[in-house]
Amino acid sequence: MKKIGLLASLLVFSSATFAQSAYDALSINQMDPILGTARYSAMAGAFGALGGNASVSKDNPAGLGVYKKCDLTFTPSLYVDNDADVGFSLDNFALIVNFRNTGKEHGYVTSSLGITYNRLRNYSRYTAVANKRNSSWSITDVMGDDATSDVIYDNAVEFGLLSGTESEFGKDADYVDKNVRFKESGHAGQWDISYGLNISNRVYVGATMGLANFLYRQKAFYNETAAGDEMYLNNYLRSDGIGVNFKLGGIVRATDFLRVGFAIHTPTFYNVDETYAIEMDYNKQHPDRNVISEGFYNYDMNSPFKMQASLGFVIAKRALIGVEYGLENYSKMKLVDTEFDMKMDGECEIISEKFDPSHQLKFGAEVKVIDEFALRAGFAFLSSPIDAFSNKEANYGYFFRPMSLPHETYYITAGAGYEGEHFYCDLAYVFRNQKSSFYQILPLLDGAWSLNQRNHNVMLSLGWRF
């Protein structure tokens, strides 16, 4: 195999012994903005100016001020990931306590207190790729480019993969067979305690304190075979986080036809526990001793600041239309090492230089076919929060781990609902398609796979208003 010479200053081993990554933080913090009750999801979450739905607390808490009755609802969901794996989750639970209408026309009219849970993301995703390009090189060629003592280099020498800086893997082979399997799993959710106030049936204001949590797991398996030789390098990552955030919002009922909404969300201030492990072996020499590095980190992470503006249209009490724009500035995320109480400068530099604001558009509509039965549909779009790797980044510490960079995402939604005097039942379907760039192991050499990863959700809400 041809020896591959890279820049002499490669810092290729930093990612092997340091678990936290700006790109992992991006994967963790990119939420699905339309998960919630079935009615909310069927209208693509475009409820910011309409209110009156239990999931609106995660967007614009002023929407609780629209309530005129108490509400108890829960929403189980079935989801199918891009590899056809099926999972079940609780997408929403809510208790809205409405303080009865005073009967006044001006000033305080009524208010509502909400305790709600909303699923924010199912991380389940699977990617398998093989032999992107450069089929004559081995990862061991790059391991030997810098003979600095490090966990991967030291073990590669010990296993016989390297002799000094020279690769011993598949010597004189013309072709190296490579494959990657990359599995993400876990979920993110949030409990909201919200209060919404109705002033003169024209102005609605609200506030929320959110208690967020996530569990994110990642498994990455990399294998090579050549001329009878076989080696692998596997990475495992698990992140658990708990955090708090706050939201303020308002809705103005400009006319009986038009409502205007606005909300701001602070970052979620997370504390994160993270564990990682790296496995490597060559020709099955160490089947029982293949863990070459493992560790634990604790750090703080701030998610992006967010703002939302929305319009709601009420048409003759027979139809609703919601339009919503949101902005999340991923370049303002922050990672802080709690052991040293210091920013992670390298990761924060990548975040500020390479991450972009993400723009979010939601459109949803509902039409009452008869008084008790409604049909719904919606569409949502999220712009890409990041570009592809530059050569500088590819050479700076992102080797020896597969990496998936999220790009634009769109959602197509539909649903139907029945509403009686007290009981209601809603059904929704959500199709999600996300484009991504997937780098199988060495970004500069491999290049990117351009992928479309599709997911499906079906959710059912059962509720009582009293």
Structure description:
With 466 residues, this protein is mainly beta. 11% of the residues lie in helices and 55% in strands. The strands form two sheets. It has a 14-stranded antiparallel β-barrel. It starts with 13 loop residues before the first helix and ends with a strand.
Shape: elongated
Sheet of most strands: 14 strands, antiparallel, barrel
Strand order of the largest sheet: 1-2-3-7-8-9-10-13-14-17-18-19-20-21
Would you tell me the overall average pLDDT? 89
| Structural class label | mainly beta
Output the radius of gyration: 25 Å
- The fraction of residues assigned to DSSP E strands is over 45%
- The residue ranges in which pLDDT falls below 50 over 5 or more consecutive positions are 2-19
Short descriptors:
two-stranded antiparallel ribbon, elongated, mainly beta, 14-stranded antiparallel β-barrel, 466 residues, disordered N terminus
Give a quick precis of the structure:
The chain has helices at 14-17, 22-29, 38-42, 139-143, 151-159, 345-354, 391-394, 443-446; strands at 71-80, 86-99, 108-122, 125-130, 162-163, 166-167, 177-199, 203-226, 229-253, 258-265, 269-282, 291-302, 306-315, 319-329, 334-337, 342-343, 357-370, 373-382, 403-419, 423-439, 449-465.
Topology (elements, then pairings):
Layout: H1 14-17, H2 22-29, H3 38-42, E1 71-80, E2 86-99, E3 108-122, E4 125-130, H4 139-143, H5 151-159, E5 162-163, E6 166-167, E7 177-199, E8 203-226, E9 229-253, E10 258-265, E11 269-282, E12 291-302, E13 306-315, E14 319-329, E15 334-337, E16 342-343, H6 345-354, E17 357-370, E18 373-382, H7 391-394, E19 403-419, E20 423-439, H8 443-446, E21 449-465
Antiparallel strand pairs: 1-2, 1-21, 2-3, 3-7, 4-7, 5-6, 7-8, 8-9, 9-10, 9-11, 10-13, 11-12, 12-15, 13-14, 14-17, 15-16, 17-18, 18-19, 19-20, 20-21
